């Protein structure tokens, strides 16, 4: 991951970068051991475009990330790499890349925590960001807090002239920032129809381009588009399973908009949308749902016919990291549930084993909805 990050960033001293790349290669050779032929340096760099399971010796890469690729075929950072780098235990060294997004996230956290400008954050986890950012928003009172979270969840992209009307904490923390170059094409960008955030752009031969959401579930649902030239100008057309004309995104001028950076989208918008979808579904079943109750002790407080569910909704890419994080987290009370997306149902028993001793129960979204419906 360090090697892939080094190759895709403009920052850092070139000689130091080459030294570190060689160190990465050396570690790979050592991982292969004396009996197995390790790839040469040039081959190693090329293999960063292949699935992780093919790059590393057999048995080293856990099965759940074996199919991820760190670099795209054109040598740019893949969305898998960015996601892993933000979630995993990677040092936040400027030479590692994702400079714009990380720097923005760091400056927001600095502003929110009023900490010293030079303070470095060795590891920003979803919890750090949420604790610091949410504490600053809570300072403004419960009502403003909920409206801040609503805005960041529902509208991760804002018109420049709308920024001045946002709740004060969001303006003060400058959570909306310029849209980076890898999310625009000829100064235009497009929003994912599922999360409303900016889609990543891959340039294709012949002046074409592919736009796709960074969230794998949204890509699976069809948030993949191709830029085509029509007599009336350029437009996007569907390139995935989605075919609903009302969900076809428009190309918009980059200069007129600001967006959340990667970490805020990943750690605030994506879980927020999962929580809101659950809340909407449960309310339709006649349940009383309160979002972020008791000063955001947990995500959803659900009541129906005398039964209570205290829900923490989790949208982590790695259920192993989640299990690791939550096995020491005390639940907020009786009937506390960790709820994970249906797509990760196969990891429910893994998380369940890790958090059982603390008293958490684990359900997928549809499990929770079925349980509330039956109550
Ligand atoms: Zn999306």
Explained architecture:
α14 links the parallel β11 and β12 (336-340). The strands form four sheets. The protein has a five-stranded mixed sheet, sandwiched between helices. A four-stranded antiparallel sheet has the order 3-4-5-6, with no helix packed on it. The chain is built from 16 helices and 13 strands. 41% of the residues lie in helices and 15% in strands. It is α+β, with helices and mostly antiparallel strands and 375 residues long. α6 crosses α7 and α8 (142-154) crosses α12 (262-284). It is globular and about 65 Å long. Bound molecules: zinc ion (ZN). Zinc ion binds at residues 192, 194-195, 197, 213, 215, 218, 223. Pfam families: pPIWI_RE_REase. This is REase associating with pPIWI RE domain-containing protein. It comes from Yinghuangia aomiensis. Residues 272-374 form the REase associating with pPIWI RE domain.
- What quaternary form is this? single chain
Mean pLDDT across all residues, rounded?
84
Q: Could you say which overall geometry the principal axes of the C-alpha atoms support?
A: globular
Q: How far do the termini sit from each other?
A: 46 Å
Q: How many helix segments?
A: 16
Largest sheet: 5 strands, mixed
Number of structural units classed as domains:
3
Structural class designation: alpha+beta
Radius of gyration, CA atoms, in whole angstroms: 22 Å
H and E order:
HHHHHHHHEHHEEEHEEEEHEHEEHEHEH
Give start-end ranges of low-pLDDT stretches.
Answer: 89-97, 116-122
Question: What fraction, in percent, of the residue positions are helical?
Answer: 40-55%
